[in-house]
Amino acid sequence: xxxxxxxxxxxxxxxxxxxxxxTIFADTSTCAMDLEGSMGMLVPLSFPQKQKAPKNTKExxxxxxxxxxCLLCKLEFKMESEQKMFLKHLxxxxxxxxxxxNQVASLKSYVKFWKARFQSGPLEEFCSVMKMDTTxxxxxxxxxxxFMLSDILPEDKQxxxxxxxxxxxxxxxxxKFEREDMTYSQDCLFCRKKLEGTRADALEHLxxxxxxxxGRSDNLVFIDELLEQIHLRLQNLRCLFCNNQFYEKRxxxxxxxxxxxxxxNPEHTEMDKYFIVNYLEIGKSWKEVEEEQDxxxxxxDESWSDWCDDEAESPLVCLFCxxxxxxxxxxxxxxxxxxxGFTLDNxxxxxxxxxxxxxxxxxxxxxxxxxxCNESFDCKSSLDEHxxxxxxxxxxxxxxxxxxxxxxxxxxxxxxxSQLEDANDGVEVPVVPE
Length: 434
Ligand SMILES: [Zn+2]
Ligand SMILES: [Zn+2]
Ligand SMILES: [Zn+2]
Ligand SMILES: [Zn+2]
Ligand SMILES: [Zn+2]
Prior knowledge:
The chain is mostly helical. The chain has 3 domains: 2-25 and 57-164, no CATH class; 183-274, no CATH class; 315-419, no CATH class. It is built from 14 helices and 9 strands. The protein has helices at 2-16, 57-64, 83-94, 107-118, 154-180, 199-210, 223-235, 249-258, 286-292, 328-338, 351-366, 380-389, 398-401, 415-419, and strands at residues 67-69, 76-78, 96-98, 128-134, 140-149, 184-187, 194-197, 316-317, 324-325. Strand 8 and strand 9 (324-325) form a beta hairpin. The protein is globular, with a radius of gyration of 26 Å. The chain starts with a helix and ends in a 15-residue tail after the last helix. It binds zinc ion (5 copies). One zinc ion (ZN) is lined by residues 239, 241-242, 244, 255-256, 259, 261. This is C2H2-type domain-containing protein. It comes from Cloeon dipterum. Pfam families: zf-C2H2_2 (PF12756).
């Protein structure tokens, strides 16, 4: 029973933490097409409409914040602003807990789905049944029955994954818009300059002139709102990293510079929504993703404050040996000579595939496994021998590395990733907010 109680506790504490959870989900209906063709000239023609900007977080939040009927009764709740109340109602009035509710990409759609399914059978059919010796209001009572809806059930898992994918698509669409939109125009956070052009230009200004590095724009989404959040914090004279408040601007900026607090704290989960990585895997935050990347190059005590350091100073480590270079070009030269012609230059792979390639090779080499044929060896030197003798110092088959897990850096401080270039436009783009 203790286990079940703990599980329920965990469920409920999740419930408490969902306040800032931004649930993003939108239908994909776009603006109406203009009428023409078979209608001839009977209806007025219209110029093709300028494509509307994909929704920002506030609009997405509002989309999801519609009143939906409870899973098990007629009461209605707004799925975002009244989420806590709704979850409490489920628990006290229906003894139902939704597991990991903060990882459901659209509670609105989730609830609608299960409400319909619940019509077809008893709760036991869809939910785990737990017994606890307490009533919902905390009184002792032997073997009280509770239900838990979670992704242990394949159908629930599928639903969660589907919602997650949909949300990711919406996010990527928004990101594409932000990347291409040239009409960005805002005052700089730190100086009087008006930042105009693309959002990437704005971030570049912040990094270059104010040593304020948010990572590069390809990692980010809802950049306007992110900068607005930062602006508000600075206006309230609060440090971005440690949240300490100061009496005056100069003291704050001195503190942030000296303590290297000119960066975002990954503990601040309200910032999660601005980092693409949070939309990639269900239920993982960027911090957890980072923490999973343990390897010989990532000392455990390396703290997040390091990602605002000047990354140009991190050496680039060869994919196959300990050699380090300052520039990608030099590294490629080394690699061509020492590793049988292998180079990251001119691979004709998209930026993201290059990232995955690097992470994949790093992981394989770390495991002493050949990236090309996957044969594994008991030591590094046997692998080296094999790579050379089998001529496997080549780019492996794309299917081997074109997998979502390789989007995440194998080494958290892998400077090679930040120097990769997009094959198409030669623009330097990022991978981790380091
Ligand atoms: Zn109800
Ligand atoms: Zn400025
Ligand atoms: Zn601070
Ligand atoms: Zn090497
Ligand atoms: Zn091999």
